[in-house]
Specification:
This protein is an alpha+beta fold and 187 residues long. It is built from 4 helices and 9 strands; from the N terminus they run H-E-E-E-E-H-E-E-H-H-E-E-E. It binds flavin mononucleotide. Flavin mononucleotide (FMN) binds next to strand 2, strand 4 and helix 2.
Length: 187
């Protein structure tokens, strides 16, 4: 399969902005069953094929939303090159019930000890017990705990806006009928 046409464009943005650690942070929007949107910052953990990999806690609200409706859009702004990517598609959830292709173990291996710790914490979003010792660091296990989930965002539309240039450049990449199309549009 040939590489999606937006892939080298995004790879180039990641490379050119690599001096800023936060260039790997993007916003991921999902909706609940009523269509109400939620948006949050997540870390880009690399590509799995054409999909963007994100790690998250299976007990978090976003995971409930993804199970109800898989549609999502990521919004990613690169400050050095002044480019925005809006990446829409479907999220696939990998948890202890659906753990194909070693996605979870591989992602777990790649995590730092510090990043692993939060998956042993009490459930996110629940009222905090200030007396708790639940946040005390534990030795992380070789296999990921059940709370450790991976989301893969498989894009079907990428809207790339490059602010540099007069006029600005905007291009829409769309996956239709089994192939990607590329269309330059007015910014
Ligand atoms: C810089 C930054 C990076 C973050 N990275 C992640 C991440 O990779 N995965 C994640 O689940 N939450 C991450 N978070 C926390 C989320 O933004 C959010 O607060 C949390 O996941 C709960 O969201 P939810 O209730 O919508 O599920 C990050 C937050 C910040 C500020």
């Amino acid at each position: 399969m040939t590489l999606a046409p937006w892939r080298p464009v995004l790879a180039r943005a990641l490379h050119r902005n690599r001096a800023r650690v936060y260039c790997r942070y993007l916003q991921l929007a999902t909706t609940d069953v009523h269509g109400k949107p939620s948006n949050r910052t997540v870390v880009f953990r690399g590509f799995v094929g054409e999909a963007l990999q994100i790690v998250t806690d299976g007990r978090s609200e976003k995971v409930q939303q993804v199970q109800a409706t898989p549609w999502a859009e990521a919004c990613w702004y690169f400050t050095i090159t002044r480019e925005q990517f809006r990446i829409a598609g479907q999220l696939t959830l990998f948890n202890s019930d659906n753990d194909g292709e070693n996605i979870r173990p591989n992602a777990w291996q790649a995590l730092s000890a510090k990043a692993r710790q939060q998956f042993y914490w009490p459930p996110p979003g629940q009222p905090r017990d200030r007396e708790t010792t639940s946040f005390t660091p534990v030795d992380s296990t070789e296999q990921p705990p059940d709370s450790f989930n991976v989301l893969l965002l498989t894009p079907d539309r990428v809207d790339h806006l490059a602010l540099r240039g007069q006029p600005q450049d905007r291009c829409i990449y769309e996956y239709t009928k089994g192939a990607w199309t590329t269309q330059a549009v007015n910014p």
